[in-house]
Amino acid sequence: MAEIEIQNVTKTFSGSKQPAVNDVSLRVRDGEFMVLLGPSGCGKTTLLRMLAGLDFPDSGQIVIGGNDVTALPPRQRQIAMVFQSYAIFPHLTVFENIAFGLRMRREPNDAVKPKVERAAAMLNLEAFLGRYPAQLSGGQRQRVAVARAIVMEPKVLLMDEPLSNLDALLRLNFRAELKKLVQELGATTIYVTHDQVEALSLGNRIAVMRTGEIVQCAAPMQVYDRPATEFVGSFIGNPPMNFLYGQLEWRGGAMRLVFGDHGLNLPGTYPIPDRRMVLVGVRAENIEALAEPTPQALPARAEVVEPLGSHLLITATLGQQSVKIVAKTDFPAFPAQPIWLRPEVDKLRWFDTETRREISSV
Ligand SMILES: Nc1ncnc2c1ncn2[C@@H]1O[C@H](COP(=O)(O)OP(=O)(O)O)[C@@H](O)[C@H]1O
Ligand SMILES: [Mg+2]
Question: Residues with Cβ within 6 A of ligand 1?
């Protein structure tokens, strides 16, 4: 097992002005499952390839298990990598595909067989060991790619969007299996994805990346509930967090959040000056929809009502601003009709209107 330490790593590809990875520092604990999450092009693969030794940083250091591996080739890093495209050999059987790395290491035959069989069992591939990749489904091929990585008993497992080529149902099932598998293995894992649901589901922690930088690194529910920036709140969660302009007012020692002619009394006070405009972050499920005027509820107008099976998703307008609310399926909402919105005031988050960062409430 191994801790991974990435220290101030920067990489700019030749011909590019913007660094693909820009001064990234990250410590991944021994046995931790760390997810790198971010939109396409934000530098996830580049960072992972530098961890694997397939690319090298312009500056900064990578330390794995206490050894500085920054300049070491892949085979000296005790890592295994699973790519997005399964990259398995078409001319080898499943058994030989899984055994490939062990053979390269010149492990004796009688050691290879039980190891391959154990890895195959962990991925439900026992019945397919004699088949060729062309005789497998996409999901089975991706299992072979994962089996081939774990059979090496790596200290560090790196995975780059391993589920993205699978259809939705397979992805859902394989995600849960992968989580169980990695828990059993105990290897330090870094998992790259642009899928926020995957990130929430799998990670012990999530490092959210944007344009080559890590914006926030925290436990899944922490990034969900307390996004550090508007970008994180919008990227994580479906629907994205609502962001509304409002004004904070002090009234006789208490604070009030005001939207136009209406306002909410706040339970606490925040180190924010009187009459300051803020960007208020609030999740759709933290706003209660009401059919009648109620204290601490803001009048709004339902615009779109979407039944989504387990709940209703209502898009409403509050003044000129659009806001999404999750309601029970039997809530009577109709387009162009008034509704009242009661946010859970202790779930409101404050963001600076310029920097779009959370205003840290002491
Ligand atoms: N080999 C390369 N040469 C030049 N630019 C590259 C190369 N690989 C990636 N890039 C650029 O670096 C940035 C980050 O890419 P990448 O790490 O693949 O992002 P992600 O995996 O998050 O989608 C992108 O702007 C991409 O175009
Ligand atoms: Mg990528």
Answer: 13, 16, 20, 38, 40-46
